[in-house]
Amino acid sequence: MTGMWREHLDRFFNLTASGTTAGREVVAGLTTFAAMVYCVAVNPMIMAEAGMDRASVLTATCLIALFSTTLMGLLANLPLGVAPAMGSNVVFAIILVKQMGVPWQSALALVCLTGVIFMIMSLTRLRERIAHDIPDTLRIGIQVAVGLVIMFIGMRNSGFVVPSPSTFVTMGPITSPKVLMTLAGFILTPVLVARRVPGSLILSIIALTIVGLFLPDGKGSTITRWPAHIFALPQWPHATAFQLQPLYLVQHILYVLPMLFFFLCTELFGTLANLLGVVTATGMVSKSGRIPRAREAFITDAAGSILAPLLGTSIVTVYSESITGVHAGGRTGLTALVIAGGFLASLFLWPLFMIIPPQATAPSLLMVGMMMFQGVRHLDLSDLRESAPAALTFIIALLTGNLINGMAIGTFSYTAMALATGRGRAIPPVVWGLCVIFILFFVVSARMHGHHA
Fold this sequence. Notes:
There is one protein chain. By secondary structure, the chain is mainly α. Helices cover 67% and strands 3% of the residues. It contains 20 helices and four strands. Strands 1-4 form a two-stranded antiparallel ribbon. Strands 2-3 form a two-stranded antiparallel sheet. Helix 8 packs parallel to helix 18 (384-400) and helix 9 (177-194) runs antiparallel to helix 10. It is globular and about 70 Å long. It starts with a helix and ends with a helix.
């Protein structure tokens, strides 16, 4: 029976043709799962900022990762883990809901619409056209801006940075156990990552959570509180599932249009970059640069991003942590099925994930933010036409605390630089469209704030 199963697996996933074995695929899947399971702890904490129920988001996170990664394995036969995107969840909770005032139910509807549009794009040639037309300087600027926002959220939630009347923000008191615990994590986590320790982010979260059991929280308890149970039956996400309210989008379409574009870009470039990076490491990219089964991978991503908001979380993406499994020998969709099995097991460990404090996740958010900085190396910093729009995008996004401000001014800067240097004809139509979208956004936003004042 074992031999027959092995033969079926070999035939279905093309294991021998891909130069791998079932045993190697299992090890690879477990390696990738260990590297990306931190999202089960971090995503609910971020989405709770939008007023969503943390326990329900945790279940939704596990369910959508289970569904999307299984689909990636069966449909695309690629060794990739798929889960809610870090960065997009911060934009969802902090920018869209808290700053812009969009109800989270309507924000979920916007994400679902993004998934539908991305599915249409994936089934046509429109995806390649838009990916080609958006300038690298704007894409990199947005990526770095989101990375900075992620880092700031982690530091703020952990109490490492606090408000200051003179400098706006400052470091929390160094004598505070919460600050010391976070600081220890900021030192420990990069060391684990630099040493290439398998599952370094989740190991850091576990270590810090355990330390929190022995540190006072200043309110008569400890930073981490021991759960009543370690294992428990999965809970259906009643508080977040099927709560979409699209009416707000219809009434304020011009106001939310920039965010629709952002999520679309995240889907497009996040998945494309991670897919290309992981598949290149396997040696599976053709000489012409084509990615095998890329269409199936994008369809998987789009399907996940349609289902994710129905359950109660933001868009999904292929995780760059999948590279760890590839290095361990993963080559086929069997690796993805093992990753999915890990998320299935996580559904029964939700009481443990619920006790993880912000001080334990802040260092992982710091590392995720730092990884998003890597795009800067592709900029020619000596050419202001390329570096200025990117720098304006992430500096203004950080200092104003608003991603749209950065995206808009970066786009206006790119357009002005191109016109001033005689390259006006080279400006892609999508950039002109963005300029119009951002102008309309600022007009509508000013009117809305005027009515609220």
